[in-house]
Design a protein that fits this description.
mainly alpha; 8 helices; about 75% helix
């Protein structure tokens, strides 16, 4: 059970790392192929006795590169998944912009009540967008429209867009976890980043 909890606790990190790796790999292969064919054409000019061999390889590489018109669409789709996956990750790691500086001036009980109210508002917002985006995905599913430059692979628009309700559902779950911790007196606020405190820590860590 502890192992499953650790996997769940770091799910966004692993998924974001996978998306970044996939984006990097697709872009790298596309760039390499678009520049590699010139090498074989140059070799064909330099070695006339083997020009047919090098021209054949160059033609194959440029043909493969031209066939990768889907790479840009795939990269954009992966980037969209990265953005909405990062929403929940930002909530879990308290990576959002700190806006609770004034709240920290209040007493701890007041901070707790403000945190509960703020958390309820965030839950309502995330829940509303989860439901609305799910209805949007249902409409795309019914339309069954292929994704741009990816439709011939069987990828539909709803396949790409489904990250929107999933992302907001993950945000809802993470805020629900925060609410539970506040009710248990394990924390007082949403855990938003405190830039002033971070700046002071950085200043103390700098060598004199």
């Amino acid at each position: 059970m502890n192992a499953l909890w650790r996997v769940w606790d770091h799910f966004e990190e692993a998924f974001i790392a996978f998306l970044l790796a996939a984006m990097t790999l697709v872009t790298f292969v596309y760039v390499v192929l678009n520049n590699l064919y010139t090498v074989f054409y140059s070799l064909a000019d330099s070695f006339p006795q083997a020009e047919d061999f090098f021209f054949a390889i160059g033609d194959f590489v440029i043909g493969f590169a031209q066939a990768m018109t889907w790479s840009t669409a795939l990269t954009k789709a992966l980037f969209a998944w990265l953005i909405f996956s990062g929403l929940a990750y930002g909530v879990r790691t308290a990576g959002h912009i700190g806006v609770d500086a004034l709240v920290k001036l209040a007493s701890r009980p007041v901070q707790r009540y403000i945190g509960i109210v703020a958390c309820l508002f965030c839950l309502g917002y995330a829940g509303l967008l989860s439901i609305a985006s799910f209805e949007w995905i249902q409409a795309l599913f019914t339309a069954n429209i292929g994704a741009e430059d990816l439709g011939h692979f069987g990828i539909k628009q709803w396949h790409i867009g489904m990250i929107v309700p999933i992302g907001f559902a993950m945000v809802f779950i993470r805020f629900a976890e925060i609410l539970v911790r506040i009710l248990r007196n394990e924390q007082t606020g949403l855990g938003l980043a405190d830039e002033a405190a971070d700046a002071l820590k950085l200043g103390e860590e700098e060598p004199k």
